[in-house]
Amino acid sequence: MLNSIINYFTQNNHILSFLGILLFLFTAFIFSNNKRKINWLKILNAFIMQVILAFFILKTQIGSRIFMILADIFVLLYKFADSGIGFLFGSLANQSDSWGFIFVIKVLPVLIFLSSLMSIMFHFGVIQFLVKIISYTIRPILGTSGVETLCVAANSMVGPTGAPLLVKKYIKHLTKSEIMVLMVSGMATINAASLAIYGSMGVSILHMLVASIMSIPGVLLISKILVPETESPQTVAGNKIEMPRDSSNVLDAITIGAIDGLKLAASVSAILLAFISLMAMTDYILLNTIGYSLNFIFSKIFYQIATLLGVEVQDRAVAGALLGQKLVINEFIAYAAFVKSALSEHSRIILTYALCGFSNFSVIGMLIGAIAVLAPEKRTILTKLGLRALLGATLVNLLNAAIASLLI
User: Fold this and answer.
1) What is the maximal distance between C-alpha atoms in the chain?
2) CA geometry: angle at 235 spanning 234 and 241, to 5°?
3) Which residue, 309, 170, 337, is CA-closest to 240?
4) Quick one: pLDDT at residue 155?
């Protein structure tokens, strides 16, 4: 028995992944604003849930099968979106022709289709039903409030700006710890639309789905270490939380979703254009002043983190650069570089988890702005928690990657 355990930890860098898990949890403890108030039983329950979910999906046939079916559904949705893309853009949508893969044509329009689909599902109460199932499953185990559990569950479907809208009338009553959960969950997960987008780029949908599910207890775990609950949440006793729809009929839902998707696609296009251009300019300046590129600097700074995730030795410099891009710029840029990189399969799986989240500096402002509009009186708390929430979301993503690395 002991020999089996020793053998397991000495293969595939498992010992490094285990040390990484300990370090990421210890980092959260170091930055806690009230170490004496940490409820270690809740923390332990959240961590056990996170590991069990990962084990069930990655190491059991039934878990793997369920999530493979979900991944196939996302692939099918992309094919449906491709029909609309083909109608609008004709032969330009055929990547086998001489112009190849055109990002703005093959990827961004998928956001419009999925946004409409999510709007339809929300109109008929499907999203609310799924979110409540997840919320009701987690709350009895972890003892979290209704609002914070709901937000964590919803973020994996509707994203960091959509989830606060579901609980907008409760935000002004949230405790500091609940606000921390709301912010960390907004940055530690990716929504369904983004998952489909990255899947169409070549990232494993299966592993992104697993990362999203693992992030639910992971967010609560890290958030409750960084900012433990010291107040009395309004919905801790299980008060019913309503999630009203904002569309009058299904056609209205389609229209609202399409317009929101178009705005999102335009925003993504603008952000990518700006960041990629600025990266090129920064690289040029750095290379001609200090002789080093931005990716080289990232690879040096984040090399040791890649090591603690269990990434293969030959891939650690590239992995460090990708982790830096994700934190400083955004996950879109990191995944775009990720799919072109020559990484081993083991390292590729680990990095899929580490990059699966909106945790970057630019999202802090977006998240604060979106929540502050709904509850202006919370703006001061939001700004004070901004960097701590980014740290928390980053730790959730790294913890997911280290746990997955320990199991593969």
Assistant:
1) 64
2) 125
3) 170
4) 74
Q: Which residues contact 2 (CB under 8 A, 6 or more apart)?
A: none
Sign of CA dihedral 102, 108, 109, 110: positive
Q: How far is CA 203 from CA 71, 345, 367, in A?
A: 11, 12, 25
Determine the Cα–Cα distance for residues 314 and 328; give it in Å rounded to an integer.
23
Q: Please tell me what DSSP assigns to residue 190.
A: -
User: Of 328, 271, 273, 274, nearest to 298 (Cα)?
Assistant: 328
pLDDT score of 348 more than 60: yes
Alpha-carbon separation of residue 371 from 171, 286, 332, 357 (angstroms): 8, 36, 23, 19
What confidence score (pLDDT) does residue 287 get?
A: 87
Q: Which value, to the nearest 10 degrees, does the dihedral of the CA atoms of residues 59, 78, 107, 249 take?
A: -120
Which sequence spans correspond to the domains of the chain?
24-92+99-229+247-407
pTM: 0.83
pLDDT surpassing 80 at residue 320: yes
From 202, 246, 234, 244, select the one nearest 335 (Cα to Cα).
Answer: 202
Please tell me the predicted confidence (pLDDT) of residue 28.
96
325, 156 contact by CB (below 8 A): no
